[in-house]
Design a protein that fits this description.
It is a single chain. The protein contains 13 helices and no strands. With 391 residues, the protein is mainly α. The longest helix is centred in the middle third of the chain and has 53 residues. The protein is globular.
C-alpha cells in the first residue's frame, strides 16, 4: 500500500504495525462513540456529550506530553506502553462489567491513544526516508481513515451480537495483537541528542509559521471531515433522504479520504504536488463541498459534498504531516507530531461547534457556509507555505 523502500537495511514492512496502531485509535474512538447514544438510552444529552468528549479531551491534554516523552526515551517504548494501556483499559470494562465505569474507561483509552498515536507518527517519520514521507504518512492516514469508516459499522455489529462487553473485549484483543506485531517487527529507534530547550524555545518553535500553517491546515481539514460526518446526514434528511442514503454518503466521504491519501503522498514524493499548493487545493475543494451541501440539500448535493470533503481531506492530511516531518529535527519529532495532533483534535471539536452555533442562530446552510469561509481563509495561508530549515 505504501511502496516504501527499506531504510538503512530496515525492511519496508516495519511501518505496517504503525499503520495498524493508527487504525486502533480511530476504530476505538468511532466504534464506541457511534453506540453511546443507545448505551445511555438517550436520556441525557449532557451525559452523552461528556462521554463523547472525554476520549478526545484526554488526547488534547496528553499528546504533547507523551510526544515529548517519546523524544526523550525513544518512541518505541511509548508505542508499546500506549497499546498495552489501551488494551488494559478496554479489558477493564469487560472485567468490571459496570455501566458506570464507561467514562473512566473512555478516559483511559484516550490517554493511552495519546501515547501511542504521536509515537507511531514519529516512528513513521524516522523509518521512512525524507524522500518518501508523503507516501508513508499517506498510508498511515489511510489506515486511520479506514478505522473511522469501519468503526461505526463493525462497532454496531459487535454491540448487536454481544453488547458493549464484546466490543471492548475486541478492542483489547486488537490492541494486544498490534502490540505483539510491533514488538516483532518495529526496530529500536534510539532517542537522538537534543539541544536543551527552554519553555521560550518551545513556544517560539510552536508559534513559528512553519509549524502553525500546516497545523492550521490539518485542523481545517479535520473540521471539514467532522462536520461532513456529523451534519451531512442532517442535510440529507432535510432533503427527503432516508438513513440508508445518508449513511452511504458518509461512507463515501470516509472511503474517498482513505483512498486519496496514499495517492497524494506519492505525488508529493515525486515532486508533482508541492505542500503549499496541495494543501491550499485540498482546503478549497473541501470548502466547495460544504457550499454544495448548503446550496443543494438533495441526493446530488450530499454525494458531491461527500466526495469533495473526502478528496480535500485526503489531500491535506499526508501533505501536512509530511511537511512537519521534513521541517522538524528528528530529535523533536514526537513533540511536534503530538502538538500537531492536538491541532487536529481542536479542529475535530471546533468545526462542528462552529457550524452548530451558526446553525442555531440562522440555519444549517449558513453554518456550513461559515466553515467554508474559514477554510478559504486558510487557503491563503497555505499558498505561502514554504519548507523551513530543520531547527
Amino acid at each position: 500500500m505504501t511502496g516504501i523502500k527499506p531504510v538503512a537495511g530496515r525492511r519496508a514492512d516495519q511501518v505496517f504495525p504503525l499503520y495498524a496502531a493508527g487504525f486502533v485509535t480511530a476504530f476505538g474512538a468511532h466504534s464506541i462513540a457511534a453506540g453511546l447514544g443507545a448505551y445511555t438510552g438517550f436520556t441525557s444529552l449532557l451525559a452523552l456529550g461528556l462521554l463523547l468528549a472525554v476520549y478526545d479531551g484526554a488526547e488534547v491534554i496528553l499528546k504533547p506530553v507523551f510526544g515529548a516523552l517519546a523524544d526523550r526515551i525513544g518512541p518505541r517504548p511509548v508505542l508499546y506502553g500506549g497499546l498495552l494501556a489501551f488494551a488494559a483499559a478496554s479489558a477493564a470494562f469487560v472485567l468490571v462489567d459496570d455501566p458506570a465505569a464507561i467514562g473512566l474507561v473512555r478516559f483511559g483509552q484516550g490517554a493511552a491513544a495519546a501515547a501511542f498515536s504521536p509515537a507511531a507518527g514519529a516512528l513513521v517519520a524516522r523509518l521512512a526516508p525524507d524522500s518518501q514521507h508523503g507516501r508513508a504518512f499517506g498510508g498511515y492516514g489511510a489506515w486511520k481513515g479506514l478505522g473511522h469508516a469501519l468503526g461505526p459499522v463493525l462497532g454496531g455489529i459487535l454491540i448487536t451480537l454481544g453488547g458493549f462487553g464484546l466490543l471492548f473485549g475486541t478492542l483489547a484483543g486488537l490492541a494486544l495483537a498490534v502490540l505483539a506485531w510491533a514488538v516483532l517487527v518495529v526496530p529500536k529507534v534510539a532517542p537522538l541528542p537534543r539541544d536543551r530547550q527552554t519553555l521560550f524555545d518551545l513556544a517560539r518553535r510552536l508559534t513559528a509559521p512553519g509549524f502553525l500553517r500546516p497545523t492550521a491546515g490539518l485542523a481545517g481539514a479535520t473540521a471539514a471531515l467532522a462536520v461532513g460526518v456529523g451534519f451531512l446526514p442532517v442535510v440529507g434528511a432535510g432533503g427527503g433522504l432516508g438513513p440508508l442514503a445518508t449513511g452511504a454518503a458518509v461512507s463515501v466521504l470516509a472511503a474517498t479520504a482513505a483512498l486519496v491519501q496514499p495517492l497524494a503522498g506519492r505525488a508529493r514524493d515525486a515532486g508533482r504536488l508541492p505542500d503549499g499548493t496541495g494543501m491550499a487545493g485540498g482546503l478549497a475543494i473541501a470548502a466547495a463541498g460544504l457550499l454544495m451541501a448548503a446550496a443543494v440539500p438533495g441526493l446530488l448535493g450530499v454525494l458531491v459534498a461527500s466526495v469533495a470533503i473526502g478528496l480535500g481531506t485526503g489531500l491535506v492530511t499526508p501533505l501536512g504531516f509530511a511537511h512537519l516531518a521534513a521541517s522538524t529535527p528528528q530529535a523533536r519529532l514526537g513533540q511536534t507530531m503530538g502538538s500537531a495532533e492536538v491541532g487536529r483534535e481542536l479542529g475535530d471539536a471546533g468545526g462542528p461547534l462552529l457550524v452548530g452555533v451558526i446553525a442555531a442562530a440562522y440555519s444549517l446552510g449558513a453554518g456550513l457556509a461559515g466553515l467554508a469561509v474559514v477554510l478559504l481563509a486558510l487557503v491563503l495561508a497555505m499558498r505561502t507555505l514554504r519548507l523551513d530549515a530543520k531547527r
